[in-house]
Design a protein that fits this description.
This protein has one domain (about 10-125): Up-down Bundle (Four Helix Bundle (Hemerythrin (Met), subunit A)), CATH 1.20.120. The chain is about 80% helix and about 0% strand. It contains five helices and no strands. The protein has helices at about 10-20, 20-45, 50-65, 75-95, 100-125. Helix 3 packs antiparallel against helix 4 (about 75-95).
Length: about 130
């Protein structure tokens, strides 16, 4: 049994019905996709661009959600982070002060820590899927 992955989730079931091997293929691509979206977050931080950071966080959450239920604390954290970024983006639009670079760097650190175990589990699933 898995700590993060729900092999009976709606998304996984639908993918398996469409193409049973697709779930394993997506899981195998997942670590590289995660790294790509984390890099996008890093780019956004370096450019002080909340929109880019938000895009990276949203993409991470969407990809995780294929394997992990919305109720799981990892997804909940991602949703909270996304909501916080949206709020910061709105406050920038109204010229209110938002978070500084250190806040974003701390957020990135938290993302990486919280994503490590799910990423490892999904990579393991790609090598040895359970049905």
């Amino acid at each position: 049994m898995y700590k993060y992955i729900n092999i009976n989730s709606k998304y996984i079931r639908e993918l398996q019905e469409f193409n049973p091997e697709m779930v394993v293929e997506i899981a195998a691509m997942f670590p590289d996709e995660c790294k790509k979206y984390l890099s996008l977050v890093e780019e956004g931080i370096a450019a002080a661009d909340v929109e880019i950071i938000l895009r990276g966080v949203h993409s991470l959450k969407s990809n995780l959600n294929i394997f992990i239920d919305e109720q799981h604390e990892v997804i909940q954290y991602m949703q909270q982070t996304e909501a916080s970024l949206r709020s910061r983006l709105e406050s920038q639009d109204t010229n209110q002060s938002g978070a500084g670079p250190d806040d974003y760097k701390e957020m990135l650190c938290q993302l990486k820590q919280r994503l490590q175990e799910p990423m490892d589990e999904i990579a393991h699933f790609a090598c040895q899927p359970q049905k």
